[in-house]
Amino acid sequence: MIRRVWREDFRIIGYYTGLVTIGVGLLMLVPMVTSFVFREWASALDFAISAALTLLVGYVLALVSRTKSTPGLTHAMVIAAGSWLVAMVLSGVPYVLSGHMKSFLDACFDTLSGYTTTGMFLLQDLDHISQGLNMWRHLLTYVGGQGIVVLALTFLIGSTGGAFKIMVGEGKEEKLEPNVRHIAVLIWRISLIYLGVGTVALGLIAIANGIKPSLAFFHGAYVFMSAWSTGGFAPYSQNMLYYHSSAMEIASMVFFILGSFNFALHYAIWSGNRKEILRNVEIVSFTITLLTTFSLVCLALMQRGVYPNAVALFRRGFFQLVSGHTTTGQSNIYARTFVREWGPLGMLVTTIVMAIGASAASTGGGFKGLRMGIIVKGIATDIRKLLSPERAVVTGHYHHLYDHILTDGVVKSAAVIVVLYVLIYVVGAVVGMACGYPMADALFDSVSAGSNTGLSCGVTQAGMPTLLKIVYMLEMWMGRLEFLSVFTLFGFIATSFRSMRLRKVAA
Amino acid sequence: MKRLFVVLTVMALAVLIVAPVCASAGQPPLLSTTELVENSYKWDGQTVWFKGEVLQDLMVREDGTWMNLSDGNNTAMGVFVPKGVAMPAISHMEDYRTVGDVVLITGVFHRVCVQHEGETDIHAVTVTVLTPGSIKANPIHLDRVVWFVVLSGLLGLVMWLYYRKPARGTEH
Amino acid sequence: MEERTRTKRMTSFRRDLLGMLTEVAFVGSLIGLGFLISWLFFMGR
Fold first, then answer.
1. Which pLDDT score, from 0 to 100, does residue B63 have?
2. What is the H or E stretch that residue B69 is in?
3. Which residues of chain A does C43 touch, with a Cβ-Cβ cutoff of 8 Å?
4. Which fold has domain B30-135?
5. Which comes out higher in pLDDT, residue B10 or A283?
6. Does the beta-carbon distance from A313 to C35 stay under 8 Å?
7. Same domain, yes or no, for A281 and A249?
8. Is A396 helix (H, G, I), strand (E, B) or coil?
9. In whole angstroms, what is the distance from residue B25 CA to residue B46 CA?
10. Mean pLDDT of all residues in chain A?
């Protein structure tokens, strides 16, 4: 993207970023109403202020840069990366107003963690926040999972070719239907139906477990939003331990596994192509890696005698592992238990599954199952080529909605992104170690940030070094957007400076 | 007379020396969530004291009641009160508008509770309410109201400007 | 409501439901396999 940057480029970016910001401002009305319902007046006022501010910024941006031009691919990438940052900062305002944050940076960490569906948090005294703020935290992950951009698309823009490109910038590249609005509506329909079903199911389980009906469905909604978006927030600091309920955990697990599936897969199955669930390369990859790594975890935990029986081993071991593999981050053990009881092998296996991550075009993070499948099949194909007679033509295939040919180009693209992920994981781990954390701990939390998982073994807390906070924030952001969008943003900024200098020289 | 005095002194000294030892041997330590989790193997199966604020949901089940007690910044522990144990009335549970009762319990800490499928919890043996809860103030600050009014005013202005002008194309 | 619209809605609802059930059933079996693995490890002990 080495071309001159014109004023019109800024307008396009400004205008669409403004529209996304307006979407975020409207979203803040939900927690505001929640606070009103619970008679949390001060909290409601905080959200009213935040909404007014966000809408103001959004409308000013849109007004100043109003344009009829449609975004090109570059613009879309920049808008995708840039609007995340704007949303992150403005969404932090309610957090700061609540008084539960030690700094504005911490607030940005939490909102970025929410939008990227990571789930790590630096919020102080989570057990004492308002229902409004809890609604906001969980809503952030739900919306973030759907992509802030898709939100704006659905409600604010007519169907344009430009909007499709914004979504590609977001990292959801599936070619579902030619019309982007149709895709957005479809994604929302599946998510909203599950939202309804999930909230009711989890709410009923909560009631059965002794929670008051008036609160139970809020718990249900929070846990569902956290699970489906593979976010990992929970309304209390004990995360899923708060509920002391295996039914709650299993139901949540069902939803977070579903949330980690490719939206194209959901679309295929909901359109009648039900066999796809057994043939899809990502599902096959996920099943194999999940069951193998779980066996490894069982080995590690049995060797250390951590759990006394199969039920405990399953309930704690499997939940954490699946939570990690789907990059959810909900937990039914304390963070430090990873270090103090699970031990190095247990932690390493969990780190590996977080690194691999969920399916492509889903709410999850990590390398993605699609790339794992492609790379493994690529290696297998290369081996077959080596073993075959020279004149034989060997082609590999993989099945993802359709049968695809495994070209060198496909394998290379997959490998490049995997390398980039490994790079951020390692850089984060090295910085963590430089800050004094042990290797297993530093690697665990770094991979958790870069894969947008959110499990922590104790490194992530408000007292951690500022440098590490910033490194994790960069990891979360780059990991969620799968790099291309972020690189385009930096490239755009660099070339706009260059263009400005060139114009000055020419004048 | 002198002998009686000596015997009494020895007895008094004995009581003074032995009593504190007995008392500390019988008194469970007051621990925090952090300490319990960090040294879970050490405290596993031990009787401990735990103190915390009762969080919002008190969950009554068939075999007992679950309480979550908050004892610090983002630390809380699950306490199970079995059916047989006397449970005092909890007047306030934590909420945005309420400070919950602070409760002191003695109980057995489990690193991985067998009854509860591997959970890290405390099974209470005694439960006492130390400090009853109260209503929290959460005052509305006037300067925030002012901010809201100002921002809304500006927003209204900008929205009016935005929606009133017919959409400009690229004039450049 | 037009008969055709109603039939279309029912078919769409039925497909949504079957889709959801397929997915949940699959995930349920994954979870079941997980439990089987942990059980096997303890049997093996």
1. 93
2. strand B64-72
3. 310
4. OB fold (Dihydrolipoamide Acetyltransferase, E2P) (2.40.50)
5. A283
6. no
7. no
8. strand
9. 13
10. 88
Of A428, A339, A316, A415, which is closest to residue A374 (Cα–Cα)?
Answer: A415
Extents of the domains making up chain C = 1-45
Question: Which residues between 45 and 84 in chain B have a beta carbon less than 8 angstroms from any beta carbon of chain A?
Answer: 55-61, 65-66, 68, 70, 73-78, 80
CB contact under 8 A, C30 and A294: no
Q: What is the domain count for chain A?
A: 2
Tell me, what's the pLDDT at A149?
Answer: 53
Per the structure, the complete domain to which residue A392 belongs is given by 276-464
**Angle A180-208/A131-146 helices, nearest 10 degrees?**
140
Residue A476 sits at the vertex; the CA angle it makes with A277 and A372, to the nearest 5 degrees, is 35
Whole-angstrom distance between the N-terminal and C-terminal Cα of chain A? Answer: 24
Q: Pull the structure tokens for residue A69.
A: 């031009």
Instruction: Indicate whether A449 and A315 sit together in one domain.
Output: yes
* Residue where the block lists tokens 């939570």: A323
- B165 or B155, greater pLDDT: B155
- Tens digits of residue pLDDT in B57-93: 999 999 999 999 999 889 999 999 999 999 999 999 9
Residues A321 and A200 in one domain: no
Let me know whether A359 and A448 are in one domain.
yes
Note whether residue A404 is domain-resident: yes
Phi, psi dihedrals of residue A279, rounded to the nearest 5°? -100, -20
pLDDT digits (tens, 9 = 90+) for A232-278: 999 999 999 999 999 999 999 999 999 999 887 888 888 888 899 99
Shortest Cα distance, chain C CAs vs residue A188, angstroms: 14
- Tell me how far the alpha carbon of residue A383 is from its chain's centroid: 35
Which residues from chain C sit within 8 angstroms of residue A294, using beta carbons? 34, 37-38
In-domain check, residue A481: no
If we measure between CA atoms, which residue out of B56, B64, B62 comes closest to residue B121? B64
Q: What confidence score (pLDDT) does residue A170 get?
A: 57
d(CA B20, CA A194): 62
Of C27, C37, C45, the CB nearest to A254: C27
Residues A332 and A227 in one domain: no
**pLDDT tens per residue across span A424-468:** 999 999 999 999 999 999 999 999 999 999 999 999 998 999 999
Look at residue A68 and tell me if it is in a domain: yes
Nearest to A285 by CA among A180, A400, A452: A400
* pLDDT at position A176 over 60: no
Contact residues for A412 (Cβ-Cβ < 8 A; gap 6+): none
Task: Report the C-alpha gap between A442 and A432 in whole angstroms.
Answer: 5
* Chain A contact probe: residue of B65, B74, B75 with most A CBs at under 10 A: B74
B159-171 pLDDT, tens digit each: 999 998 665 544 4
CA distance A170 to A184: 13
Range with lowest mean pLDDT among A350-359, A381-390, B24-33: B24-33
H-assigned helices in A360-438: 369-387, 408-434
Residues A99 and A42: their CA atoms lie apart, in Å, by 11
